[in-house]
Design brief:
alpha/beta, Rossmann fold, 3 domains, three-stranded mixed sheet
């Protein structure tokens, strides 16, 4: 049973050190009880208290780590039904399925093509994380060989799909270093798969024919000491799958049902006959509330919108999306190229950089930290003042990259031109266009 805020407070060091981000230990205890804080935020809590507080501090949906390496991912760990209440944390890992009877050459070609699907967006490298290897003929050598190829020749992490314990064991032996997800423990094989997962320290998916059927399976596995579980309600019809995701999330968050307090896995690849429809179903699951989603293939027109949707949904709604402060090179600029400055609001950056790129005029774009505000809003809030902009230009290093002394500021921030000139004596401050669409013509004239 979860502890109350007062019960948690009695177990804290009560130093009111503020290092956790709130002014008092009591406030931290209340946040911990309501799921708005993590126990690790307190640097002085004792090991004994950590053990006693484990239940209270654990999120209602257990976070489960998947894989190893550059595409390692985490699913679960969510604490709210709606992202505006707080935020969603662990992005839905996306995978594609291959059959164990695939030829070595075809698998190599697929992995090479799939690995190329990486997209730069808002300073992030967006890419899918998983390959689901499905046993189709019970050939453990073929299954192990394909698993080894995926693990050793690609960045992808794996989901091993088989109900045969010998096939599963062979696959694990071939790619254990990648910490694959085992799929799936069912009523008929739960003892064997539970033992294999525990012996190898691997996450385990649990499959039933309904949400209600999952409870006895997860309870049994939990009693065996397995905590990293992933749920599959067995639904392969769109409406039922959608309902199951909501039921599981509400049971975990609202009813604090620990038996269902795990992330889910969904299979759009088994719900549609073409990739276009799979993509729509996957988009639904990313929004509500699939922990992992598996497609039949990766193509640019399918994976890019899903990655972009995922990025938007798992961005903190209470904080604007930003890019990192610094100097951005657009079109291989040199020492005589124009220097422009704007705020770090992501939308502003992408619009401005896109227009500069479209102009074919190589330029330096300086991005100044402004708490994610647009130019006009940042100026009005005092986050994009002339003094600050001038100081930023001095410190950012652009003076070492160019020989001229002209800075182009946004048209909406024309009022700061005088203050920038005072901070940058000898520089010419040019007021650029108000609208980004006018940047190409402005730069070509320059």
């Amino acid at each position: 049973m979860a502890l109350t805020g007062i019960q948690i407070f009695k177990l804290l060091p009560q130093t009111n050190c503020k290092e956790c981000g709130v002014p008092t230990c009591l406030a931290f205890a209340m946040n911990l009880a309501s799921g708005k804080a993590e126990l690790d935020a307190c640097p002085y809590v004792s090991d004994e208290a950590k053990e006693q507080l484990a239940e209270a501090s654990a999120p209602p949906i257990r976070p489960v780590a998947l894989g190893k390496g550059v595409r390692e991912a985490k699913t679960g760990g969510e604490t709210v039904l709606y992202r505006h209440e707080k935020t969603f944390y662990n992005q839905t890992p996306i995978g594609a399925m291959v059959s164990s009877d695939i030829s070595a050459s075809d698998l190599e070609a697929k992995l090479k093509a799939w690995n190329a699907f990486q997209f730069e967006r808002v300073g992030f490298n967006l890419k899918p994380e998983l390959v689901a290897l499905k046993d189709v003929n019970g050939d453990k050598d073929a299954f192990a060989g394909a698993a080894q190829t995926i693990a050793e020749t690609s960045e992808f992490n794996l989901i091993l799909m088989s109900e045969d314990k010998e096939v599963m064991a062979a696959g694990i032996e071939a790619c254990k270093f990648k910490r694959p997800l085992m799929y799936a423990a069912t009523e008929s094989n739960i003892d064997d798969f539970g033992a294999i997962a525990k012996e190898n320290g691997l996450p385990l998916a649990v499959k039933a024919d309904s949400v209600a059927g999952l409870t006895p399976l997860t309870d049994k596995l939990s009693d065996m000491g397995l905590k990293d579980l992933v749920l599959d309600s067995g639904a392969r019809e769109i409406k039922q799958s959608f309902e199951d995701q909501i039921i599981i999330r509400r049971e975990a968050l609202k009813s604090l049902n620990r038996s269902l307090g795990f992330p889910t896995i969904t299979f759009p690849c088994e719900m549609a006959s073409n990739l276009d429809m799979e993509t729509l179903i996957a988009a639904m699951h990313i929004a509500k509330y699939g922990g992992i989603t598996i497609l039949s293939d990766f193509t640019g027109e399918s994976i890019f919108p899903l990655l972009l949707e995922r990025l938007n949904i798992f961005t903190d709604p209470q904080r604007p999306m930003t890019v990192t402060e610094g100097i951005y090179e657009i079109g291989s600029p040199d020492e005589s190229s124009p220097v422009m400055v704007t705020t770090n609001f992501a939308l502003t950056y992408f619009i401005v950089s896109g227009e500069i790129e479209g102009s074919k005029v190589p330029s330096w774009l300086l991005i100044k930290e402004a708490e994610g505000l647009s130019v006009l809003t940042a100026w009005a809030a005092g986050k994009f003042s002339g003094d600050d902009v001038g100081l930023f230009v001095k410190k950012c290093g652009i003076m070492d990259k160019v020989k001229h002394t002209e800075l182009i500021i946004p048209g909406y921030a024309a009022a700061i031109a005088g203050d920038v000139e005072e901070e940058l004596p000898g520089w010419t401050i040019t007021v650029g266009p108000r609208e980004a669409a006018h940047i190409p013509a402005f730069l070509k004239t320059k």
